[in-house]
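PROTEIN DESIGN WORKSHEET
SECTION A - STRUCTURE
LENGTH: 221
TOKENS:
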């Protein structure tokens, strides 16, 4: 690898490491600003954003910015088929695990069998993430809400980045050519003007895949 590549890799590493938890949360907020629901109504009344939709957006961003989310249950009560759960969630800086932000949340879940606690847990986590990262969901908090029903939703990224699976595929492919993740990040910075492979725009994924496939082993990017 060239000296310039090493310098860019070092700068990228230092940029990542020096951020505190507040800066990492802000960086995540810069990458995504809302979750958009499909225009489909439940019982012809309302729609809502699911736990899976929020997880689908946030998981790759937590990986990208070095943040771990650790939920823990404080209290759970069951009243017939209705479960109520209170949880604490800590968001940690992966490079300084003792540095974290704590938020509290509560969720409700209704189920005729044994899924009420799981639904309550999912709803509490979803709402904590939406509120901490100030994500627009379009939900009316004073209107009806049903966490038991999961609907497909569309997500709106800023920018529209590749998925974590796609990023890993590019990293593995680059590895077969003799290049590590740091070199790939530097290459993405140089060719696509992004911070690294996890920030690569979705529209550039196929181009990057083809370009990496054409590389010769151990020849600098």
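SECTION B - SEQUENCE
RESIDUE ASSIGNMENT:
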């Amino acid at each position: 690898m060239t000296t310039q590549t090493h310098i860019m890799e070092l700068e990228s590493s230092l940029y990542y490491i020096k951020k505190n938890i507040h800066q990492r949360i802000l960086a995540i907020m810069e990458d995504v600003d809302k979750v958009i629901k499909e225009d489909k109504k439940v019982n012809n009344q309302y729609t809502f954003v699911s736990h899976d939709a929020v997880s689908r957006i946030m998981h790759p961003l937590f990986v990208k910015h070095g943040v771990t989310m650790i939920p823990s249950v404080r209290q759970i009560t069951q009243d017939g088929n209705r479960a109520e759960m209170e949880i604490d969630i800590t968001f940690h800086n992966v490079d300084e695990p003792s540095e974290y932000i704590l938020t509290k949340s509560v969720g409700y879940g209704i189920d005729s069998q044994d899924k009420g606690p799981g639904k309550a847990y999912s709803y509490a986590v979803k709402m904590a993430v939406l509120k901490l990262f100030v994500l627009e969901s379009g939900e009316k908090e004073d209107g009806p809400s049903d966490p038991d029903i999961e609907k497909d939703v569309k997500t709106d990224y800023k920018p529209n980045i590749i998925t974590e699976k796609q990023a890993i595929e590019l990293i593995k492919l680059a590895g077969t050519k003799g290049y590590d993740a740091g070199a790939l990040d530097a290459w993405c910075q140089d060719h696509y003007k992004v911070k690294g492979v996890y920030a690569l725009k979705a529209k550039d994924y196929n181009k990057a895949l083809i370009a990496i496939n054409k590389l010769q082993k151990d020849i600098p990017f």
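SECTION C - NOTES
DSSP finds seven helices and five strands in the chain.
The CA atoms of residues 57 and 65 lie 13 Å apart.
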